[in-house]
Structure formats: structure tokens, C-alpha cells
Amino acid sequence: MVEPSPEVAAYAADILRSPAFAREKDAIQHGTTTVYDHSVAVANVCVRLAHALPLRMRMRPLVRAALLHDYFLYDWHDRSTARPHHATHHGRYARANAERDFGITRHEGDIIQSHMFPLEGFPASREAWLLALADKGISLAEALAGLRARMGVRRG
Ligand SMILES: [Fe+2]
Ligand SMILES: [Fe+2]
């Protein structure tokens, strides 16, 4: 399991200890990575990039939106339970669930909803751009790792 960095834990203790968020441990996102591990990895990377960039970032909304950006709460591989148009709509599904369960702010909701840019929404803040880019990088790495695992390729 991917562990949240201390800064991620500090801004999102309520999310990390909630049983609702823990449901993400049961769903696969890419390859063999769960939605939970994916989301924590994206939040950790967002924090690292935010500190590395010469830009002022609002850390609390960045961390909370990163953790909840895929909080759609279904298995998107299962057509019988997935909600329609997953690729182009799960940002708004995640936002609605996060508003209901964690009372996220409007800014946090906006960051979540545009993370699939250009498929859904348009990032309207630095935090939103950072999440959209970090998510794509992490997702690609997870998909490639899953592909390597299926092909039986060992890390050399
Ligand atoms: Fe997503
Ligand atoms: Fe994601």
C-alpha cells in the first residue's frame, strides 16, 4: 500500500481515516494499482512538485483534491456497475461524492472536476493544472507497470 507523506496526512486526516475513502482499496484503477494507492501516489507527487516549482500553490486544496480526484466509488472496469461515460464524466461524479462525504470547497471541486482535461473540464487554477499533469504521469507509469507485470517482465 502507498503511504501518504506527512504533509498529505496533515491536510487530509479526515479523508484518510474515513471508511468511505477506504473503499477505494477494493477497486483497481490501472494495471494492478488500486484507486486508493493511485490517489495517494498522485497526492504525494503533487506535494513534491508543488515544492519544486517556483510558484505559490495552495497546498490544502491541492492535497484534498488530489486524494479525492477519482472518488467515483465504482469499478469502472465492470460495465454492469459503472456509471455511464466514465472517461469523460468521472470528474463530476468524484466531485459530487466528495461534496457529499467531505464537504469540499468549491475550489477543491473545480480541481477535481477538471483533472481529466482535455476529456472533461478545463483547469482554471495552478492547483488544477498540477493535478491534471501529475495524474497523467502517474497513470501512465501504473499502466506500464501493469503491462510489464502481465508480460512477465521483471524490473532490471
Ligand atoms: Fe481520473
Ligand atoms: Fe487519477
Q: Would you mind describing this structure in some detail?
A:
It is a single chain. This protein is mainly alpha-helical. The chain has one domain: Hypothetical protein af1432, CATH 1.10.3210. 60% of the residues lie in helices and 3% in strands. Strands 1-2 form a two-stranded antiparallel sheet. α6 packs antiparallel against α7. The two termini are 22 Å apart. The site of one fe (ii) ion has 5 residues, from loops.
Question: What is the topological layout?
Answer:
Layout: H1 6-11, H2 13-16, H3 19-22, E1 28-30, E2 33-34, H4 35-52, H5 59-68, H6 86-102, H7 106-113, H8 126-151
Antiparallel strand pairs: 1-2
This protein binds fe (ii) ion (2 copies).
One fe (ii) ion binds at residues 69-70, 90, 115-116.
Structure characteristics:
156 residues, mainly alpha, Hypothetical protein af1432, two-stranded antiparallel ribbon, 8 helices, 2 strands, 60% helix, 3% strand, globular, binds fe (ii) ion
Please count the helical segments.
8
Kindly provide the radius of gyration, computed on alpha-carbon positions and rounded to a whole number of angstroms: 15 Å
- CATH architecture type: Orthogonal Bundle
Low-confidence segments, given as residue ranges, are none
- Bin the helical content: 55-70%
SSE series: HHHEEHHHHH
Gross morphology is globular
Main β-sheet: number of strands, strand sense, barrel status?
Answer: 2 strands, antiparallel
